[in-house]
TrEMBL record:
Documented EC number(s): 2.7.-.-
The name this protein goes by in its record: Probable protein kinase UbiB
Source species, domain of life: Bacteria
Listed InterPro entries: ABC1_dom, Kinase-like_dom_sf, UbiB, UbiB_bact, UbiB_kinase
Membrane topology: Single-pass membrane protein
Active site residues per record: D291
């Protein structure tokens, strides 16, 4: 870990006065002693609010901290509202690196001969540039067919920079876990570990390619709702760990509201389809795009009455296991029905709050927070905000942060934000409720049992001929076991009889010895 980098981070934090965030009562004596001695690292931004100072400090520390701040901006269960709002303004804007260097990286990855053979019209000027990679356009020529493509190239040396900053973050998280009064519940080390896994996954473009191929397959198998999301083709034969070649798309940015309106796009349908995309990925496929911010989402408006979503940059995906999906769906449905008792009980059953939690008190706390919200028209209620309020309530009952739900919560907030931006009257509850209710029935009803039996039929079909032999072997072994038990019982009886005789002999000898001693005396 670079001492120079650590000093820069500490200097930045102190120059923006972020030491005010540390609870003075919890600080060790030596930290209180050291701070005044660093007199040259004074707060230079006293006139600014603390939340603004926090964002400015994050921006000045570079891409790794910026991405971490962007992730934290979705964790309103961890941060005060003003901090979350400031972090949501973080922009991942980084100057492009030299196009010739990008071209050389591509050649080193796939070979000069292949590059010259299949890539034409390579544009040295990048189409887009971000903190981890930048994108160049080109034409792919294969089988006498030309296709417009984009080539994503990782920044040279970015992996070393990221790993060094992650090491610093891990140290800082350990300190926070020890010093903060709420450190155990907030689990800063786990949050950083989850972020570490996420950002390191982004450094392997082969993984992003595999994620995109999987997501495309999930929405192109003739299933219901498969026409609502398009994922560009991936040319994996020309891709590498630091180079990704994919189809170029010409959709309209989801944030270009005026353009979409001018084209006459059905905004209500588009917004509702965004909700469908989210719940389909999570509850049908258990595999969801977890970075659906406006820069990664476009709209195909060729048919304004039937618009579809386009998703790019699949470097971050999330998954949920069967139990988490079931608890989550049941929680949502219970919220829709205002069954706060069930919400409280589900949190206990799932282990999200300690087993000894008083369910009655927890139910009352949830009701107190949620009832005022539900007095509004459903179309005005923020789905994400309800979850945030729930998590804030659960904090009082020692609910720990669930790392497996971090990406899900972040994605839900993105989707709801995009949906409301497209169609402010979006009733997310009405759109989602039928989907979730049907999913719960499918997972817990007769149909679910039938499907599980059907799925296991190949296994039982293979094992069925073996069952008579297995029964015979079991009965034979059972008979042998009974015989062995009988022999063991007989041996045990013989040993007891032997010990009994030895005991009687010992008593007789002891009695004789005592009697002889008395007579002699």
């Amino acid at each position: 870990m670079s001492t120079k980098r650590v000093y820069k981070i500490v200097k930045t934090f102190l120059n923006y006065g972020l030491d005010e965030l540390l609870p003075k009562k919890s600080l060790p004596w030596y930290v209180k002693l050291i701070r005044p001695s660093l007199f040259w690292l004074r707060n230079k931004h006293k006139d600014k609010p603390l939340a603004l100072r926090f964002r400015l400090a994050i921006e000045s520390l570079g891409p790794v901290f910026i991405k971490f701040g962007q992730m934290l901006s979705t964790r309103k269960d961890l941060l005060p509202e003003d901090f979350a709002n400031e972090l949501s303004l973080l922009q991942d804007q980084v100057g492009a690196f030299d196009g010739q260097l990008a071209k050389q990286i591509i050649i080193d990855a796939i070979g000069l001969e292949t590059f010259n053979l299949v890539f034409q019209n390579f544009d040295l000027q990048p189409l887009a540039s971000a903190s981890i990679a930048q994108v160049h356009t080109a034409t792919l020529t294969t089988n006498n067919e030309e296709k417009d493509i984009v080539i994503k190239v990782l920044r040279p040396g970015i992996e070393k920079t990221i790993k060094a900053d992650l090491q610093v973050m891990s140290r800082m998280a350990s300190v926070m876990a020890s010093w903060l009064p709420d450190g155990k519940r907030l689990r800063p080390k786990e949050v950083v570990a989850e972020y570490r896994k996420t950002i390191l996954d982004e450094l392997d473009l082969n993984r992003e390619a595999a994620n995109a191929i999987q997501l495309k397959r999930n929405f192109s198998q003739g299933k219901e709702l498969d026409n609502i999301l398009y994922v560009p083709d991936i040319y994996s034969e020309y891709s590498h760990k630091n180079v990704l070649v994919m189809e170029r798309i010409y959709g309209i940015g989801v944030g270009e509201i005026s353009t979409l309106n001018d084209l006459g796009v059905d905004m209500k349908l588009l917004a509702e389809r965004g909700v469908d995309v989210f719940f389909t990925q999570v509850f049908r496929d258990s595999f969801f795009h977890a970075d659906m911010h406006p820069g990664n989402v476009f709209v195909n408006a060729n048919d304004p009455a039937d618009p579809t979503w386009i998703a790019i940059d699949c470097g971050i995906v999330g998954t949920l296991n069967r139990e988490d999906k079931r608890y989550l769906a049941e929680n949502f449905v219970a919220f829709f029905n205002r069954d706060y008792r069930k919400v409280a009980q589900l949190h206990v059953d799932s282990g999200w709050v300690p087993a000894g939690t008083n369910v009655d008190e927890f139910e009352f706390a949830i009701r107190t927070v949620c009832e005022p919200i539900f007095n509004k028209p459903l179309a005005e209620i923020s789905f994400g905000q309800v979850l945030v309020n729930l998590f804030n309530t659960a904090r009082r009952f020692n609910m720990e942060v669930q790392p497996q739900l971090v990406l899900l919560q972040k994605t839900l907030l993105y989707i709801e934000g995009l949906g409301r931006q497209l169609y402010p009257q979006l009733d997310l509850w009405q759109t989602a409720k039928p989907y979730l209710e049907n999913w719960v029935k499918e997972q817990m009803g007769f149909k679910a049992v039938f499907n599980k039996v059907k799925d296991n039929l190949p296994f039982w079909n293979e094992k069925l001929p073996e069952i008579p032999d297995l029964i015979y072997d079991y009965l034979k072994k059972d008979k042998q076991l009974i015989h062995q038990q009988q022999e063991m019982f007989i041996q045990l009886q013989l040993q007891q009889q032997k010990r009994h005789k030895q005991l009687i002999l010992s008593i007789v000898l002891a009695t004789t010895a005592i009697s002889a001693a008395i007579i002699f005396s």
